[in-house]
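Aim 2, interim progress: modelling of the cytidine-5'-monophosphate-bound target.
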Amino acid sequence: MNSQIYIALDFESGEKALAFLDEHSLTGVAVKVGMELFYREGPWIIKQLQKRGHPVFLDLKLHDIPNTVKKAMKNLASLGVDVVNVHAQGGSEMMKAAREGLDEGAGNGKRPMLLAVTQLTSTDEQMLSEELQVISKVEDSVIHLAKLAKESGADGVVCSVHEVAGIKASCGEEFKTVTPGIRLVSSEQHDQKRVATPKEAKRQTTDAIVVGRGITQHPSPKEAYRQVEKEWEYE
Ligand code: C5P
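Predicted structure of the complex, ligand included:
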């Protein structure tokens, strides 16, 4: 994985996302495009970002029957994005199908990295047991899903910083971890339940981090980005 800090471009339109990057001179930084932006703009926004030199993580968290996911991934691979993902809870057949779709869609080009989302960082123990009736701890469920993802051909997982060590111990150092829920100040949680600072993320040896509101809603986004970079690269 070449890029290590992804800015989550959770904007309502492509115009706003591109204006944000321009206004704050965030030239060529790696970005994550999620459902909000992609469902409005489609492949156009990906092309615009690529034209400007931004590596793109397309975060659509696919979760459907294996055949549908395979065909969808074939189409996403043809966009030439760097990273895509699925929900590990879709199961091993679905993840294998995702990988096959990516291999087919990439052809002779570079295959996008396939990540699996274990448990969303907005999920906590109470929600898991009371709402979803999953009778295991978040951490155990995450490790189980990470192992399943690895066996099914994923390159890594999206997980919370607090789960990185357990995942690396169970799946091997080379299995990638990408961690959202990053805050410059640990008290600013928004709707995330399991947060950490970039410094802590680095200490936990995660491979890449995703930072959204900590940068996009900061009074000085460029300064916030630099601060994240500083903590990530030098601390
Ligand atoms: O604003 P914030 O830094 O919380 O944004 C985190 C980003 O990471 C959002 O775009 C969210 O959809 C995404 N994400 C997440 N948890 C996951 C996977 C992706 O928060 N497990």
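Residues 8, 10, 34, 59, 117, 120-121, 158, 180-182, 190, 192, 210-214 surround cytidine-5'-monophosphate (CB under 6 Å). The CA atoms of residues 53 and 81 lie 12 Å apart.
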